[in-house]
Design a protein that fits this description.
It is a single chain. With 472 residues, the chain is α+β, with helices and mostly antiparallel strands. The protein has two domains: 234 residues, Aminohydrolase, N-terminal nucleophile (Ntn) domain (Glutamine Phosphoribosylpyrophosphate, subunit 1, domain 1, 4-Layer Sandwich); 185 residues, Rossmann fold (3-Layer(aba) Sandwich), CATH 3.40.50. The protein is built from 18 helices and 23 strands. Strand 5 and strand 6 form a beta hairpin. The longest helix has 15 residues. It is elongated. It starts with 10 loop residues before the first strand and ends with a helix. Bound molecules: iron/sulfur cluster. Iron/sulfur cluster (SF4) binds next to helix 8 and helix 17. Its cofactor is Mg(2+); [4Fe-4S] cluster.
Length: 472
């Protein structure tokens, strides 16, 4: 399996407490989060005594059938998950939510993000006799919770959360409560909402809007929200917290109609385009965006520079991502199927094309080639984020330097490689400056700078180091 784009969203989660249509609303919310994961989906519901679940591979309608959804109707609380495999194999056993059946009571678990010490903890737990059912990092929290001795679930949860490291938005469903919690750096988004008097949480506010819920606020780093029949209880587990929201959520992953801190991603991307225009001193006849995620940045670029914004590229929405083989020629064909230039728009023009990022360079090279063959006189490229140079260990599937062209080539070398007249990336400072305008309290920029805000324990394990030195 190979994606021509090279960057994939991590996962999406949704949870709701005490609503008569909990399963149906969860299904609808997951539809709105489908862009965050297309490999599998699932729902776990509570009837107040036990938990029941349905899950499957593929897009939501393939993963959960009408019959399965009907079987969950009437349960009043639910959690749901859409998955893109960032750790663990792409197979049904890894599709979430996980449902643990235990003498202490059933427990449903949904996780967005990636733990950076999961292998270390798993190894220790296995030494003590634990048997894992999946190869996913997410299962670790379930084992830590069942192993804990305190009669208080909250104490056990706090102790477990203080053992795990990494990026996580976790939802835990039990017969008498739903718990939502975010890692102490708030790397992944999690939003609190309310619909018909029932509390709900979602990875993005677009899922809240989809079910007619009011978007109340963003869940804070280190926060624990517990929903039960007494209402909502706010607490936290971490002594020290920092705000390190993933920069790429703003640039590329989140849906443009979603809001972080009540500011739309649409407006943030427009502002990234404006900032890029300030930093990119090139004259041209038109500016175009690579659909879909770069259209807003192109709009912003145009409004600052005064260069007219046109639709010069068309996206074929029906090109699947899974059938592409890892072969350069086939990848190029796949990109050609995905983006088509509009000759009348670009012919004879000096074109600035805006994209949100360059991963391997395959897509960019094709786009430049296609614009030239459609008659563009000059092609300049502006990237609305800094060069992607480092792997992400917090839930995005770029896991090696070798996958990133900017990790081993200079901007000038990349320019030559993709055969563009000029290439300008947004500066790291420019990007952070934009986020500040939208009340962001701090972002992770590790894939641009290599400054990882959370320790990467598993990748420092001796066997990993050994593998790396042997070039495995
Ligand atoms: S390393 Fe990059 S992609 Fe990963 S969380 Fe940080 S900003 Fe996001």
């Amino acid at each position: 399996m190979y994606d021509i784009r090279g960057l994939n969203e991590e996962c999406g989660v949704f949870g709701i407490w005490n609503h008569p249509n909990a399963a149906e609303l969860t299904y609808m919310a997951l539809h709105s989060l489908q862009h965050r994961g297309q490999e599998g989906a699932g729902i776990v519901c509570s009837n107040g005594e036990n938990l029941f679940g349905a899950r499957g591979m593929g897009l939501l309608p393939d993963a959960i059938s009408q019959v399965q959804l009907d079987s969950l109707r009437g349960y009043r609380s639910a959690i749901g998950h859409v998955r893109y495999a960032t750790t663990g194999a792409s197979e049904l056993s890894n599709v979430q939510p996980f449902l643990f059946k235990h003498s202490k009571g059933d427990l449903g678990l949904a996780h967005n993000g990636n733990l950076t010490n999961a292998r270390q903890i798993r190894h220790a737990l296995e030494e003590e006799g634990a048997i894992f059912q999946t190869s996913s990092d997410s299962e670790v929290l379930g084992h830590l919770l069942f192993k804990a001795k305190s009669p208080s679930f909250k104490s056990n949860l706090k102790a477990a959360l203080n053992q795990i490291k990494g990026a996580f938005a976790y939802l835990v469903l039990q017969k008498d409560s739903l718990t939502a919690t975010l890692d102490s750096h708030g790397v992944r988004p999690l939003m609190l909402g309310k619909v018909d008097g029932a509390y709900c949480v979602a990875s993005e506010s677009c899922a809240l809007m989809a079910i007619g819920a009011e978007y109340i606020r963003d869940v804070e780093p280190g926060e624990i929200l517990t929903f039960n029949d007494a209402g909502m209880e706010e607490d936290n587990y971490a002594l020290e917290t920092k705000h390190r929201m993933c920069s790429m959520e703003y640039v590329y992953f989140a849906r443009p109609d979603s809001e972080f801190r009540h500011h739309s991603i649409y407006n943030v991307r427009k502002a990234l385009g404006e900032q890029l225009a300030k930093e990119m001193n090139i004259d041209a006849d038109i500016v175009i965006g690579v659909p879909d995620s770069s259209l807003q940045a192109a709009k912003g670029f145009s409004s600052y520079s005064g260069i007219p914004n046109e639709q010069g590229l068309l996206k074929n929405r029906y090109v699947g991502r899974t059938f592409i083989t890892p072969d350069q020629k086939m990848r190029e064909r796949a990109v050609r199927m995905k983006h088509a230039p509009i000759r009348d728009v670009v012919e004879g023009k000096r074109v600035i094309v805006i994209d949100d990022s360059i991963v391997r360079g395959t897509t960019s090279k094709y786009i430049v080639k296609a614009l030239r063959s459609a008659g563009a006189k000059e092609v300049h490229m502006g990237i609305s984020s800094p060069p992607l140079k480092h792997p992400c260990y917090y839930g995005i599937d770029v896991s090696t330097h070798a996958e990133l062209i900017a990790a081993y080539q200079t901007v000038e070398e990349i320019r030559q490689e993709i055969e563009v007249d000029s290439l300008t990336y947004l500066s790291v400072e420019g990007m952070h400056g934009v986020y500040k305008q939208f009340e962001s309290k701090g972002e992770c920029d590790a894939c641009f700078t290599g400054n990882y805000p959370i320790e990467i324990v598993d990748h420092l394990l001796p066997e990993e180091k050994e593998k790396k030195t042997k070039g495995v």
